[in-house]
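Below is how a single chain appears once it has passed through the pipeline. First comes the sequence as given, then the structure the pipeline wrote out for it. We keep one example in the README because the format questions we get most often are answered faster by looking than by reading.
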Amino acid sequence: MMKINYGIVLKVASVVVFCFSLMMLLPMVVSWGSGAGLNIPLSIVLLLTIGSGVAVFFSTKNVKTTLGKREGYLIVVVSWLLAALIGSLPFMLIGDSNFVDSLFESVSGLTTTGASIFSEIEALPNSILIWRSLTQWIGGMGIIVLTVAIFPLLGVGGVELFVAESPGPTSNKIHPRIKETAKRLWLLYIGLTVVLITILKLEGMIWFDAINHALTTIATGGFSTKNSSIAYFDSPAIEYTILIFMFIAGTNYSLIYAGIKGRFSKFWTSDEFKAYLGFVFISIVITSAFIFLSTDLHLEQSFRDAAFQVVSIITTTGFVSADYTSWHPTITLFFFCLLFVGACAGSTSGGIKFIRHLVFAKNSILEFKRLLHPNGLIRIRIDNNIVRPRILTHVLVFFLIYLFIFLLGTMMMSFIMSDFDNPLISAAGAVATSLGNVGPGIGDLGPMDNFQSIPPSGKLVLSFIMLLGRLELFSVLIIFTPSFWKVN
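Resulting structure:
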């Protein structure tokens, strides 16, 4: 095994720093346009970060451009950490938040978790509101996917980065060339965002709100410009529109692309999409019936509230149209379980993903058949393709590590949050929603609460857990293994 090429790691990370730093121009323009004037400290920091990125890039322009798996994983982790640090700067310099709170909000945005430390969102400057939404929009498709799209400028291949950041058990690609795939993903991503902005404006939102909510909906992020989230608008049309786009954003982008090309049969030959659609439908029916029978809400609102919250949680968007913890304890428990679901692989959603649940469920069912026929060759099929043993191992190990992190994180957070009214329940909700990149939790951190009251140590723990969840565990944990750094 060859030594890690740190030169190419610095080279690619410098491009990420440069591109992400440029994004800070938007909140500066919004700040200037809203009459707040130019933020001088942020301007200086912006020049320093851009300058640093350019300096590092040109100092490494002659390095060997071989990019292996280890470099790919290291670039992903380093780039996300640098982006989180840079992303925290506007919160400190414009939002007047301390470092830990700013870092938490930045990580929550980039990982599209949507858990916020701000209690009075409507009192924030427009520049901070647009920055929160932009971090989610960039993090939704992935910083590294953006970098892969411009890799021809770097002279390196991007497969290792794409795999490192999206280590799911499927390998569906829109196009065999990874750079073309990244470009087409971004074009589709931008197109959906523009369409949603237009619809929300026509439905009554002002341009600023329409832009912010479109950015965070397509990213399945959930940051809103209002304290009460989508419930503020009190508009069935807006709720149904965002509901539909949340569902679309939770769908595998290769299927969306195929649908745009007119190949609708791809949807019905995808086992994962059928499971996703069926589970969402059944969950909505059961939840809406429960709400209608246990509350005084009329049938349409029961259905709308149930559908919106079910899709919001499953797609890990985290928007709120109603306080689901106030309906019934059974529904609260059900929504807690939904924090562990996730939508489709190849989408912007977080969570475990339906494909893993599907593989795990099919393998569990077939295990009973194997007990009856021990000499039979019984294999799992997904989309009529045999699931390789390596993929099956990946799924089983993923579930085990996911559960271990949840339990360990819950124990740590229950100790840190010992002064809360319900420390264990609140800690379990905080860890589950952070690991699944959802946003709202249960207990003292429900859909109508925020994360401001968590001690700084807890915010740092949850920030790390959010990053683990966004990069699907392995891409982060692999760098802590001795074999990653071992050179033969």
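Confidence is low (pLDDT under 50) at residues 153-159.

See the next section for the split statistics.
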